[in-house]
């Protein structure tokens, strides 16, 4: 007697630009491993939300979009941002609308060093670099607090305020998440990144919470580093990093730097997690919509495919997640690389190489 197949209901939101191209590649790979396993399948529902939808409706997603998404097992997201729609309108209207309202407070961004990919780091070949940026994803500098026209004095004298919000609860949960995550990794070490010498309220609170929580994890090494020093360390002395935890803005910047150092932003996957599982979590490549290459079939699908692996892990299919990771490694090791990595392969050729590596 065969066991019933588990069906995962996934909302796919390609969004803008290359989002559709990379998500199509990722879905092919996910459907392939599901069919291979025979134990589960995906039921995809695609939503055409994004900047074109905005052009038609004045909204990036429908007013009841969150209600629609709420019952899915996960969200697979492409990219957001397109010329003609101000970036803050598209970002807040779609991606941040979802992450904030579904309390996806932990953004996990592995920095993926792959065989066959040339890194600008001098030491990249000498050390098996492996670090993960854990980004606070609900408050900090992206709390959406502030205002414009505060002086009331009109053009030329405008005053704007952008407030960063740090709550003890928000700091503590992401810092605990980082320590718990470090415990699952070969190198049990957490570096906390702030700019608390200059940002003397919120980031000092963050540092204090970090010192307190660190005492509960004597088996995990910990250190506090200023963001400017950490940026230099990413480039000059990255070999002793494991988990790097930082506020919304700092981690956003550091994870882009990390993936550029790993060879390309196109490689970087991410998971926006609601760890309590009250809401669906969202999986997306770190890169944006890349209008300059959209529609040309040459964008790198690896960030999206690897985000699919993170989604599988979240859904309890870690064996298949690892299979995808290995297939990606075989693909880059074989030199099947898109132009951002110095190669000539198309998006489809990379996806096909990953499928071939997975076998039939
Ligand atoms: N797939 C990620 C994406 O579309 N990012 C666009 C962006 O500007 N994101 C800003 C952020 O990560 O907060």
Relevant terms:
about 350 residues; alpha/beta; Isopropylmalate Dehydrogenase; 2 domains; ten-stranded mixed β-sheet; two-stranded antiparallel ribbon; about 20% strand; binds glycylglycylglycine
Task: Characterise the protein shown here.
The protein is an alpha/beta fold and 360 residues long. The protein has 2 domains: 207 residues, Isopropylmalate Dehydrogenase, CATH 3.40.718; 142 residues, Isopropylmalate Dehydrogenase (3-Layer(aba) Sandwich), CATH 3.40.718.10. 39% of the residues lie in helices and 21% in strands. It contains 11 helices and 12 strands. The strands form 2 sheets. A 10-stranded mixed beta sheet has the order 2-1-3-12-11-4-5-10-8-9, sandwiched between helices. A two-stranded antiparallel sheet has the order 6-7. The longest helix has 19 residues. It is globular, with a radius of gyration of 20 Å. The relative contact order is 0.17. Bound molecules: glycylglycylglycine. Glycylglycylglycine binds next to helix 4 and strand 12. The site of glycylglycylglycine (GGG) has 11 residues, from helix 4 and strand 12.
């Amino acid at each position: 007697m065969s066991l019933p197949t588990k069906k995962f209901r996934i909302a796919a939101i390609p969004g803008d630009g290359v989002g559709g191209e990379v998500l199509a590649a990722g879905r092919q790979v996910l459907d392939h491993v599901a069919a291979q396993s025979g134990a589960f399948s995906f039921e995809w529902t695609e939503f055409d939300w994004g900047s074109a939808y905005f052009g038609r409706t004045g909204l990036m997603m429908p007013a009841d979009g969150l209600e629609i998404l709420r019952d899915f097992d996960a969200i697979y997201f492409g990219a957001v941002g397109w010329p003609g729609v101000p970036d803050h309108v598209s970002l807040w209207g779609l991606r941040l609308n979802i992450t904030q309202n579904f309390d996806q407070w932990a953004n996990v961004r592995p920095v993926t060093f792959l065989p066959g990919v040339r890194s600008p780091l001098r030491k990249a070949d000498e050390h098996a670099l492996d670090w993960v940026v854990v980004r606070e994803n609900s408050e900090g500098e992206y709390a959406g607090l502030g205002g414009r026209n505060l002086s009331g004095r009109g053009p030329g004298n405008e005053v704007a305020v952008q407030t960063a919000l740090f709550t003890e609860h928000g700091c503590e949960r992401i810092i605990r998440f980082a320590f718990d995550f470090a415990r699952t990794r070969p190198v049990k070490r957490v570096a906390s990144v702030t700019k608390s010498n200059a940002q003397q309220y919120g980031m000092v609170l963050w540092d204090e919470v970090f010192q307190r929580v660190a005492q509960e994890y004597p088996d995990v090494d910990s250190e506090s580093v200023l963001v400017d020093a950490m940026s230099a360390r990413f480039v000059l002395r990255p070999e002793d990093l494991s988990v790097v935890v930082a506020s919304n803005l700092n981690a956003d910047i550091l994870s882009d730097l990390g993936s550029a150092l790993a060879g390309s932003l196109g490689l970087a996957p991410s998971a926006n997690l609601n760890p309590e599982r009250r809401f669906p979590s969202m999986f997306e490549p770190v890169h944006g919509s890349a209008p300059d290459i959209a529609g040309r079939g040459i964008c790198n699908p690896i960030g999206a495919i690897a985000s699919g692996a993170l989604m599988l892990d979240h859904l309890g299919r870690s064996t298949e997640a690892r299979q995808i990771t290995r297939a990606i490694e075989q693909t880059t090791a074989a030199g099947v690389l898109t132009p951002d990595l110095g190669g000539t392969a198309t998006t489809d050729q990379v996806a096909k190489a990953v499928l071939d590596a997975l076998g039939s």
